[in-house]
Amino acid sequence: MADESRRLQLVALQQGALSNAYGFAAIHLEDLRPPAAVDSAVAIAELLRATEASLGLGSGTGLIQLAIPLGLSHELNTSPPERLSWANDDEPPSLYFFEPRHWALPSDREEYRCPCEIAEFIGQEVNASYACGRSMAERGRGWEFSRTLWVWTTH
Fold it and tell me: What's the CA gap between 19 and 13, in Å, rounded?
């Protein structure tokens, strides 16, 4: 029953991405039922593969990604992490579903993004990228830059 409950939540997440203007939807891992624990690279890879399978998606599409918040920076930080960490206790990791059209939409973000190699992910068949950025509205308010590690399956 727990697997069916989670599958229904993920289908709702997918439908949310299809129906909004931004082409994505997200859910905090702590809000999944049952909650998803991602305390290791292996657990992250397993969660991503299980999510793709429950939605009938192929691996490696990048449509399902895990966002691991890394905290804030006063400046545009161009130094990706080398190790997996959960540095932000205020914001839990979140599972994102991206609609393909999301990638074609214009962005209002000032952002640095690069691929990164995380030691713990070697051999887990996942890719990771680091992003540090903020929206133009956040910039106008003088807010800090958010730092995020994005993870998705390779195949």
Answer: 10
User: If you count them, how many residues does the chain have?
Assistant: 155
Q: What's the number of domains the chain is made of?
A: 1
Q: pLDDT tens for residues 82-135?
A: 877 766 567 888 888 888 888 888 888 999 999 988 878 878 888 899 999 999
- Which residue segment(s) compose the domain that 62 sits in? 2-153
| Secondary structure of the chain as H, E, C letters | CHHHHHHHHHHHHHHHHHHCCCCEEEEEHHHCCCCCCCCCHHHHHHHHHHHHHHCCCCCCCCCEEEEEEEEEECCCCCCCCCCCCCCCCCCCCEEEEECHHHHHCCCCEEEEEEECCCHHHCCCCEEEEEEEEEEHHHHHCCCCEEEEEEEEECC
Q: Give the position of tokens 């990164």.
A: 116
Mean pLDDT of 74-80: 93
Residue 17: what pLDDT? 62
